[in-house]
Amino acid sequence: MFIPDQFIGSVEVAPTSDKTTRPDILNFYVDVLRGLSARQKHISSKYFYDAQGDRIFQQIMACQGYYPFKCELEIFQNNSDELAQQLIGDGSDTDLIELGSGDAQKSIYLLQALSRLQACYTYVPIDISGSMVAYLTGNLGNMVPHIRVSGLVGEYLPMLQKAARRSTIRKTVMMLGSNLGNMLPVDALKLCERIRALLNAGDRFVVGIDLKKSPQQVLAAYNDKQGITRRFNLNLLARLNRELNADFNLDQFEHFPTYDPESGSCKSYLISLQEQAVTFRLQDRTDYIYFQKHETIFTEISQKYNIAELEKMAKIAGFEVIQNYYDANGWFVDMVWEAKQM
Predict the structure, then answer these.
(1) Where in the chain are the domains?
(2) Looking at the domain 67-213+305-339, which fold is it?
(3) Per-residue pLDDT tens digits for 140-152
(4) Are 94 and 199 in contact (CB under 8 A)?
(5) E strands along the chain, which residues?
(6) CA separation for the pair 246, 101 (Å, rounded)
(7) Tell me: the pLDDT tens digits for 157-183?
(8) Which of 59, 113, 115, 297 is disulfide-compatible with 84, CB 3.0–4.6 A?
């Protein structure tokens, strides 16, 4: 498949809604076609989260077997007062920047704890979902007294760079929900190193990570009996139909999760149930993607770690581990890392 040069480029996205502009569609189109033309077909998991994907993911978090959300929620319900004391330091003004904020169901407990301490801070939610950032910007004031909110819509690093340029005050960056696990370990380390490069010595990085555990328990979290995770994965193809004029037949693809307990790698795939061709149309061009029967599309990784692996990552990236917070079962951890002097 040939992609003309005029369809190749990178756009820094910072809109205030989910309405997609022409450059966004071109970027989306090119990125998806490149992934589906690779030897291992793949689609970035960041494209899960359109408005429909957001709604389905809220249902996943309510599933009985989906433990990551419940475990981290417990951590923030029980430890936010102590964490807030750690983060305010000498009481000077600070930016609290959350990468992948979603609807802030967990971080709301920390925001409320900071407000009880009358801390001077600005909350900066960063998310690829414009609907989520708009929700937080419009509603947090009703839940957290005197909060200052300055949201950004886009991918983590470009928006973190923008937030870092806006002020020189102390910063705490949060990345909850095991979002760091949604990439290969080598890429997770690179991201941590790039985050460190945007921080000053003494700034904090709060990272929530799912820990290695029983393979059966892990798989149950990503293959619920109600089929909600299956709908979430298939909605990725439905989004391509809606926004890129593709013609995926969702009945001809199946959701399939795997977990390797040795590496900690939990992956999700969509499997083609027959030999088929899918058409994409954008303006005056048409592209075709061909699938063999049983060919896979890799859609997501949910990497699990142990504490030793995370401590090593922190050290290599230029951080020192200050504190670990666990749920009652020890299934999930929120770690406080401090940026070391370079």
Answers:
(1) 67-213+305-339
(2) Rossmann fold (3.40.50)
(3) 999 998 899 999 9
(4) no
(5) 94-99, 121-127, 148-149, 152-153, 170-175, 204-210, 253-260, 265-272, 276-282, 285-291, 296-303, 319-326, 332-339
(6) 30
(7) 999 999 988 888 999 999 999 999 999
(8) 113
